[in-house]
Amino acid sequence: MTENQQTDEQFINQPTVQRISKEALQKLLSGKVMRDSTCFVKFYSNTCPMCHELRQHYVEAAYEVQNNLRETGRNDVHFFAFNMADYMEAESIIGFEGTPTIVMIRSNTRKPKITVLPDPEAPHPKTWYHASDIKSFFKKEI
Question: Is residue 8 part of a domain?
Fold first, then answer.
């Protein structure tokens, strides 16, 4: 069993990270989501090996955050994954270059707040971001 399959087994009943559609992403970016929410989106490409390797770190960090927030009664933080093949323009609209990229989108106003996780100073050779980069970003933005 591969690491990704093990992760799938571990989180099979936990909708921790959901794939987001082009329409849903456009709604988030346009400010049409008026409910207070913090959304993290991992942008990936099917042809990007680092994107696939990063999956486990992203899912595990999201799972950890959701469990901690559930204990406090918060349900306003969501985790998504977006395939760039569905909407290539997202890269220029949000202002990032290349995948994998992790973005926070906070909705509750007509102009959502968007923060891109900065490129690491010393990228991981297989995943680009380190697990600690992702966890620190989640903690800072929640």
Answer: no
Which tokens hold the place of 113?
């707040």
For the entire predicted model, the pTM comes to 0.88
Cα angle for residues 20, 24, 28 (degrees, 5° grid): 110
pLDDT digits (tens, 9 = 90+) for 105-136: 998 777 899 999 999 999 999 999 999 999 99
Where residue 73 sits, what CATH number does that domain have? 3.40.30.10
Question: Which of these, 72, 57, 68, 74, lies nearest to 11 by C-alpha position?
Answer: 57
Residues 76-96: tens digit of each pLDDT: 999 999 999 999 999 999 999
